[in-house]
Design brief:
- The complex is a heterodimer of chains A (about 425) and B (about 475).
- With about 425 residues, chain A is an alpha/beta fold.
- Chain A has one domain.
- Chain A contains 17 helices and eight strands.
- Chain A has an eight-stranded mixed sheet, sandwiched between helices.
- Chain B has about 475 residues and is an alpha+beta fold.
- Chain B folds into four domains: about 1-110, Rossmann fold, CATH 3.40.50; about 115-200 and about 280-320; about 205-275, no CATH class; about 330-460, Reverse transcriptase/Diguanylate cyclase domain (Alpha-Beta Plaits), CATH 3.30.70.
- Chain B has 13 helices and 24 strands.
- Chain B has helices spanning about 45-55, 60-65, 80-85, 95-110, 120-135, 165-175, 230-235, 305-310, 330-345, 360-370, 370-385, 410-430, 450-460; strands at about 1-5, 5-10, 20, 35-40, 70, 85-90, 140, 150, 180-190, 200-205, 215-220, 225-230, 235, 240, 255, 260-265, 270, 275-280, 285-290, 295-300, 350-360, 390-395, 400-405, 440-445.
- In chain B, the strands form seven sheets. Chain B has a six-stranded mixed sheet, with helices on one face. In chain B, strands 11, 12, 15, 16 and 17 form a five-stranded antiparallel sheet that branches. Chain B has a four-stranded antiparallel sheet with strand order 22-23-21-24, with helices on both faces.
- In chain B, a hairpin with a 3-residue loop joins strand 22 (about 390-395) and strand 23 (about 400-405).
- In chain B, about 40% of the residues are buried.
- Classes of the chains: A alpha/beta (about 425), B alpha+beta (about 475).
- The interface between A and B is medium-sized, with 32 and 24 residues.
């Protein structure tokens, strides 16, 4: 039977013809491949082409940073993160850039975070420890840190992250490389990639969508989300926009707010931070439901004005949001049509198309992965993930797409992000009432 | 009633020498040494206190063990004074106290003569004997004038603000040696520098230690997630969010106050956790709370071993002094001083005796470990090399250098000790800066009129810094 299956497959492959296959796979060949394979490769080639002028500018930016050596405030909001904060603060002592002001904001922790942070404060390892007895949510915790920050730049970190020795220095350099940079996103990778298959797949996904994807969008000027796990901002701009708004999805929201003010957002691929990815499918699903809902809440609703011409309309902002909406929301809907169309009109070909799809996806992923590994500062250890590439089709093509689609419908129809326990109800209720 | 130099003798049916002293100006301790008991008139509280302190502070058994009563008519007696006397009476009818006097006298009979060695042993011995003859506990008394807030009758007469740690050490040693059974009374928190209990506790700025702090509520606006101190929101009589300009109307609905924040008015530092600071009124040191010295103030009662030892002498050495080469023991020093006073009586040329006390806080001593002994040995070497070969040197209490300069001018010894003081001060302050070391010295003339024990007691009292 297996023999018959493969016999049919290769027979079809020989006789269907390239044009016919491309037409059958229109969704992939016309929509996904040009954006995520071709464009990525072209932009990467341009962006990374050896360029002496660019190198000199980078050196000059680095020198300017060290000449000024501004105070940088690191704010770390969190609840029950004492153990992580302890490791984070000790790890940060290794940073090459040390003119740092550390503000830890304890958002109503109920564990021993207080004792740990108090000890760190007494030992002079953190500059300020602010504690809210009542949990207010991540946005308010970050805003409290911002209220007392004194640095010229504010670096926002997640407590469970860790960083390369030069990560802070690298995330600051773009501010000196170009004018009008409002915020810089760090290159977030998965620290626990080897825990299980769930984290390994996320590690590949982060490399594809963050390490490479954001390098490309940044080059195109449409980079739209500074990760909350590792991002740097000009403090004066954060103060002007009043800091973070009620989440979930506050990372993307604040990035858009900075873009709307006319400032550029850049991705610093050399500023590497490691984060702890969810190791269970359930928590991963919850996390991604939350992330995907924010597309509807913030892009469709709160910042819908970006899509219509208005007095401060900007094409880069428009494309930034269009890229996001088209390739996530619209193509997801289209994908449902595509699957139904295949099942109704070409059902007999499904047995041929599925393995073919696996082959094409894996081959494309492999090419992309080779580029990633070649570019990565820790390619040798990341290369081991290659064995999981065949599963990426299922992970991104089916699992993530399903999660995204569910999230979009739940948010569109039920405004369910406002019920997410990630944020305290007292804030979500008000945000919903005022449509924020 | 017969009026004598020792006061007024109160007749009694048992024929005891009980004297009432009302005018303390003309009475000296030695005048009352042969009395059986004294009644001190509290109509002159200052004189009364001075006299009873002298009496209990003496090392002469007949004096410090003397039954002393206080005659107080419609006057409140200070608890500290009360703790040093054997009773308070309201009239000179002595029948009620006679039996007590006889009992004390009777128990004194069993006390064997003791050749005390170190000052610590002498103080402990007299305290134990006092407790034994009274069948009493040694109970600390609350005393606002005391350096540590509590006074121990008898013992406290021999310790001043500079060596309180030695007193606690002695009591602890005595308990370890099974002379005393301690019972917890209170815990005191003392300055880490000078052992004073006179501390002002206040919340201070962690940066500049100023107590000039202002607290403010933090306000969290639910709608826009802005959070900041209350003054950010105040707009006239209203609360208006500085981020979104909306009015905050209802706590719990629009906003809450999740915590408070401190602002230092001195250095503008902002923080949430002020440092509790114990400011010492005596040495003006700022003590963080966790650096304060916690000491349990105990009452003590004599154990059977303690009772036995108080009669026959301490069976175990309370504390060994560090032995230094070229330095005689304290007992021998006392004998030499006695000889020197006797010599001075028959010679026109007086001698001089001096002391140099190096006080290092107990905490620092403990942290130094064995290097403390090495350091004291080095100072001893310096003292030995600076003094004349004819000077007699002793080392007591692990911190006191005692010197006798036979047939020598007071001024020579004073100049010598001043020189040693300056050099040792420089040395210690450079090697152990800011730890609260005090070095004092004192010089006494040893002439024909001097009593060698008085000279020693004076030398042990706080000296010139």
């Amino acid at each position: 039977m297996l023999y018959d299956f493969w016999d049919n497959f290769f027979y079809n492959l020989q006789h269907e013809g390239l044009i016919r296959i491309i037409n059958l796979f229109w969704y992939y060949f016309y929509l996904e491949a040009p954006r995520f394979i071709l464009l990525d490769l072209v932009i990467l080639a341009i962006a990374l082409w050896p360029n002496e002028k660019k190198k000199l500018r980078l050196d000059a930016a680095k020198n300017a940073l060290w000449a000024e050596k501004p105070l940088v405030t690191v704010i770390v909001p969190g609840k029950n993160e004492g153990e992580h904060i302890y490791k984070l603060v000790h790890g940060m002592r290794e940073q090459t850039y040390q003119n740092l002001e550390f503000i830890i904001i304890d958002d109503g922790s109920t564990d021993d975070t207080y004792m740990i942070c108090r000890n760190l404060k007494q030992r002079g390892l953190i500059d300020m420890y602010l504690r809210n007895e009542e949990r207010g949510g991540k946005a308010s915790a970050a805003n409290l840190g911002l209220r007392y920050a004194r640095g010229k730049y504010v670096v926002h970190l997640d407590a469970d992250s860790s960083f390369d020795r030069d990560a802070i220095e690298q995330i600051l350099i773009p501010f000196y490389y170009e004018p009008d940079i409002g915020g810089v996103g760090g290159n977030v990778k998965v620290r626990n990639a080897n825990t299980n298959i769930v984290t390994s797949l996320q590690a590949i996904e982060y490399l594809q969508t963050i390490s490479v994807g954001r390098m490309v969008t940044s080059w195109l000027g449409i980079y739209k989300i500074i990760s909350g796990a590792f991002g740097a901002f000009r403090r004066d701009l954060l103060v002007r926009i009043g800091g973070w708004d009620v989440g979930p999805g506050l990372d993307g929201d604040i990035t858009v707010k900075l873009r709307k003010m006319g400032y550029q957002i850049r991705f610093a691929e050399n500023a590497v931070g490691m984060t702890q990815a969810p190791a269970k499918l359930r928590s991963l699903s919850n996390q991604r439901l939350r992330w995907s809902k924010s597309l509807i809440r913030f892009r469709f609703r709160k910042h819908s004005d970006l899509m219509v011409p208005y007095e401060s309309f900007s094409f880069s902002n428009f494309f930034s949001i269009f890229d996001n909406i088209f390739y996530n929301f619209i193509l997801d809907i289209l994908w449902i049509y595509y699957v139904i169309d295949l099942m109704v009109n070409n059902f007999e070909l499904l047995m041929f198309l599925l393995p073919l799809k696996l082959l094409i996806y894996t081959a494309a992923s492999f090419i992309q992965f080779l580029v990633i590994i070649a570019l990565s500062e820790r390619g040798r250890s990341e290369w081991k993930l290659v064995i999981y590439l065949p599963l990426m089709m299922i992970y991104t093509g089916y699992y993530m797409r399903t999660i995204r689609t569910i999230a979009y419908f739940k948010e569109l129809l039920f405004y369910s992000s406002y019920d997410d326990p990630w944020n305290p109800q007292k804030s979500s209720k008000k945000a919903k009432e005022f449509g924020l | 009633m017969a009026q004598t130099n020792t006061g007024t003798k109160i007749p009694n049916e048992r024929g005891l020498g009980i004297y009432l002293i009302s005018d303390f100006s003309g009475v000296e301790l030695k005048d009352v040494a042969l009395a059986d008991a004294l009644i001190l008139d509290y109509s002159d509280p200052i004189g009364c206190e001075r006299f009873i302190r002298q009496c209990r502070g003496s090392f002469i058994g007949t004096l410090y063990l003397m039954p002393v009563f206080i005659l107080a008519i419609e006057r409140q007696i200070e608890p500290v004074i009360q703790s040093m006397c054997d009773g308070v009476i309201s009239s000179t009818q002595v029948e009620a106290i006679v039996s007590k006097i006889e009992k004390i006298k009777q128990r004194q009979v069993s006390l064997a003569p003791i050749d005390s060695s170190t000052p610590e042993v002498r103080i402990l011995t007299k305290t134990m004997r006092y407790m034994f003859t009274r069948e009493a506990k040694l109970t600390p008394v609350v005393d606002h004038r005391s350096h540590i807030g509590y006074t121990y009758p008898i013992i406290s007469e021999h310790y001043n603000s500079g060596n309180m740690q030695d007193m606690f050490q002695m009591l602890e040693n005595a308990s370890e040696n099974d002379y005393f059974r301690p019972r917890f009374v209170d815990k005191v928190h003392l300055c880490s520098n000078c052992y004073s209990a006179h501390l002002n506790f206040r919340e201070t700025c962690p940066k500049c230690q100023s107590a000039d702090l202002v607290t403010e509520n933090l306000i969290h606006h639910f709608l826009c997630a802005y959070i900041g101190p209350e003054h950010d929101f105040i707009s006239g009589d209203y609360l208006v969010c500085p981020k979104c300009n909306r009015m905050l109307r209802h706590i719990g609905v629009d906003y809450d106050k999740p915590s408070i924040i401190y602002n230092c008015q001195n250095c503008t530092h902002t923080f949430q956790e002020p440092v509790m600071d114990g400011f010492c009124f005596v040495c003006q040191k700022h003590n963080p709370i966790d650096s304060l010295i916690d000491i349990s103030v105990n009452a003590f009662e004599l154990t059977p071993i303690g009772e036995e030892s108080s009669q026959s002498g301490l069976s175990k050495d309370q504390k060994e002094d560090v032995e230094l080469q070229g330095f005689i023991s304290y007992t021998t020093y006392a004998i030499f001083l006695k000889y020197e006073t006797e010599r001075a009586r028959t010679s026109p040329k007086p001698g001089a005796a001096g002391s140099l006390v190096v006080k290092i806080p107990q905490k620092v001593k403990e942290s130094m470990g064995s290097s403390y002994s090495r350091m004291m040995a080095e100072i001893a070497d310096f003292v030995k090399n600076t003094t004349l070969s004819t000077d007699i040197l002793s080392f007591a209490n692990n911190n006191t250098f005692l010197i006798i300069s036979p047939e020598s001018d007071r001024s020579r010894l004073e100049a010598l000790l001043s020189q040693i003081h300056d050099t040792v001060s420089k040395l210690l302050n450079s090697s152990l800066p800011g730890v609260g070391i005090t070095i004092t010295y004192k010089v006494e003339v040893v002439d024909g009129l001097a009593n060698h024990m008085d000279v020693i007691n004076n030398l042990m009292a706080p000296g010139r810094e």
